[in-house]
Structures are given as C-alpha cells and as structure tokens.
C-alpha cells in the first residue's frame, strides 16, 4: 500500500554507493531590476538513488524545470549543496542525459544521426557509435526508420528519437522534462506504457529516472516516489511513496485514492479543508495585491460552472473525474477552479470543487445578470479590480495608464506575474463592464463614469 510522509520530508536514506543525486537546502533566486530578488526554489532537499523513478509534480511556476537544470549541472543554485555520485557539481554532469518536451531534434539529420550525436560528443568510435545507436533505435520501437528525417515522423516517433538519443549513452540518470505533454493523449499513453514495460523488464540501459510532470495520473502510474512542489517559492510540500507493483491499474481503488489525495494537496487546501470542516465552511483565504491572477478566460469560468452544475455532478465534482471528463490536465483545470474560488463562485476542498450559492445563481441567470454578479464579485474580492475602479472613479478624466498599476504590482511580485495579472484583470473587467481598456494606448477608462 502507498505511504505518505509529512510536508517537506527528507528523502529516504540510502547506502552512499547507491546515491546518484544529493541536494541539500538548495535555493534559487534571481535578481529583479530594482526590487530585490525573486525566489524560485527555497530549501529543497532531494536524494535520488539507483534503480528508482522519481517524479517532480507541481503547478507551473513551482520551479520543477529549474531544479532539473540544477541536477544536470546546467545551472548553479544561489545557495545549497549539489552532489552527483558523491562529488560537488561544478558543471554539466557526465553519465546523465535529458529528454525534452519539445523533441529538440536537428531537422537536417536523420534519425540515426540524431541518436549518434551524444556518442560522437563523447568520442566513441564510429563503429561502436553505430552499433549502440541502432540498438537504441530498435529498443525504442523505431527499427526501419533509421534514415528518415524528423519532418517525416509523427510527434510520438520524434519523441522516441529523443528517448533513443538519451538512452544510447547508457546514462546513470535520465532526466525527463514533461516528455509527453506535447503529444496527443493516445500517443502519450502508448509511450508511457512502453517505457514502463522496458523499465520493468530491465531492458533500459539506465540507472534511474527523474521526471518533471504536471500530470497527476502520469506520476502515480510511472513513479516510485513523487515529490509535490508548492508554488511561490517552489518547495517540497510533500513526498509520496508509490508502492503499487507494475503494471499499475488506473481503476484500482487504491490508485484512484492516491490520485484524489494528490489533487487535494495540489489545490493547497488539504490542511485548510480539515479546519474549515470543523468550522462548517470551506472559505478560501482572502486574495490580496500580492496574489498572482491566472489568465483564465470568462468563457472557461462560465463553462466550468455550467459543467459542475449539470448532471452527473449536480453542483459538486471530484477534480480528477472532472479532469478526465473534460480531457484537461491538472495544470489547465486548477487555475480555472481557483479563480472561481477567488470570486466566491466555488469552494475547493479535499480534491473536490463545489458551487456556492453565488455560483448557482450565475449558472441560472441570463447574460446581464451574470455580468452584474461577476462585476460585484470582482470589486468585492479582487483588490486589483477594486483599486482600478477606485482610481478611475476619483480622477476627473476617469482615465489611468496601465503602468500606474503595474508599478504597484511590481512591489509584490515578479514582472512577469504582474503583466499576467494585469492581462487577467483587463479581460475580467471588460466582461463585467467594470471599465474599458485601450490596447493601443494601454489605458484604463470608464465608458460611463456613473
């Protein structure tokens, strides 16, 4: 049965000879132009031993890919210790390979030539290069395509080339950065299954795998351990040991329960939900000026509210089931659900999303009434919207430049988060007819100052 440890635990101890990667108190921060620093990772501990598949699971912006680069020796952390096979990391690590999300193939090279590149860089003689490359191509299911060019291959086949290129050097650790996210659902599922089968049969010439993903089912399906990352800054919020034998059954109640539990943790409401239940409600923490706003369209919000209100959910939906029904990844679904919670249209708790009275009213209302309740909620619950409306009301011209609010947001978050938050509020404010926004002059205004 699966077991779960408390928040931010240390990785299980392993004999020193088995440890490939050892990170202690790793912190990564980037200087901002004139306002201190932006912390991406903070106090991260991670140990990876031989013979395991470890997953880094978290929302966008939680620093997972940054951590992968630190493990690879491609980036140096601001502070903390990083060791590869017992030695401090000072640059790119030998015996380590990477599979990218974007395939990263050279279009002017054939499949065989793309796979041979890594061995060529290591100085492996041409005869041995070809033998090992053909062996890797055959292993990954591309026998017969050695002389094809990337443009002649499907997305799944191109990713198989990327896998073959990573396998051919026989790495002690293979890093995978969301390797299936650019593929369609069926192709991704086939590739996952093939990798797990080859791993289980001992046919993959690698020691361990460290993979970044935002797909919860993918992590539970493939990994022996899952590290769940929180956001702003990225920290290890929980570590989950996955003890199910391979091949894993998605329909097994224990498998589904683990997926549900991870959904609950990733909504950042697991501990709050327990306290809220005791108080008889699931109220979300208040949104402040320091809260980044996701760029979620009002069409998506309305669509999700309508979906939850309808059969079979009738106002309350289990997030994993909802994600399956809508064919959405967790990273796509969470922001929509969380904005609905910010606005008070829904509550999130224990991996469920439940409509509030305001959410039901929105679904049952005509367009004008929907805009009115959305406008009321926007001003009452989103401080940035209230600030913009207040400034426009107070100015005789009822106009204000976007820079006025961007500068204020920059005091609380990074420049990129500030820009995204402003784009979100522009979209929401337009829908609610709270204010107008001119994209050319980058200026807010009131169409009707009354």
Give structural notes.
It is a single chain. The protein is α+β, with helices and mostly antiparallel strands and 450 residues long. Helices cover 42% and strands 20% of the residues. The chain folds into 2 domains: 3-266, Rossmann fold; 281-450. The strands form 4 sheets. A 7-stranded mixed sheet has the order 1-11-10-4-9-8-7, sandwiched between helices. Strands 3-2-5-6 form a 4-stranded antiparallel sheet, covered by helices on one side. Helix 6 packs across helix 7. 40% of the residues are buried.
Secondary-structure map:
Layout: E1 3-4, E2 19-31, E3 37-49, E4 53-58, H1 64-72, E5 79-84, E6 87-88, E7 96-99, H2 111-121, H3 126-139, H4 155-167, E8 173-177, H5 185-200, E9 208-213, H6 216-222, E10 225-230, E11 235-241, H7 253-266, H8 270-279, H9 298-309, E12 316-318, H10 319-326, H11 330-342, E13 346-349, E14 352-355, H12 357-364, H13 367-381, H14 383-394, E15 399-401, H15 402-410, H16 415-432, E16 436-438, E17 443-445
Parallel strand pairs: 4-9, 4-10, 7-8, 8-9
Antiparallel strand pairs: 1-11, 2-3, 2-5, 5-6, 10-11, 12-14, 13-14, 15-17, 16-17
Helix pairs in contact: 2-3, 2-4, 3-4, 6-7, 9-11, 9-12, 12-13, 13-14, 13-16, 15-16
Can you give me a brief rundown of this structure?
The protein has 450 residues and is α+β, with helices and mostly antiparallel strands. It contains 16 helices and 17 strands.
Largest beta sheet: what is the strand line-up?
1-11-10-4-9-8-7
Percentage beta strand: 15-25%
User: What summary fits the major beta sheet?
Assistant: 7 strands, mixed
* Number of separate helices: 16
In total, the number of strands is 17
Q: Looking at this structure, what is the CATH superfamily of the largest domain? A: P-loop containing nucleotide triphosphate hydrolases
CATH class category of the largest domain: Alpha Beta
Question: Kindly, what is the distance between the CA atoms of the first and last residues, rounded to a whole number of angstroms?
Answer: 62 Å
CATH topology of the largest domain: Rossmann fold
- The radius of gyration computed from the alpha-carbon positions, rounded to a whole number of angstroms, is 25 Å
The helix content, as a percent range, equals 40-55%
Q: Shape, please?
A: globular
- Domain count: 2
Helix/strand-derived category reads: alpha+beta
Extract low-pLDDT stretches: 1-16, 269-283
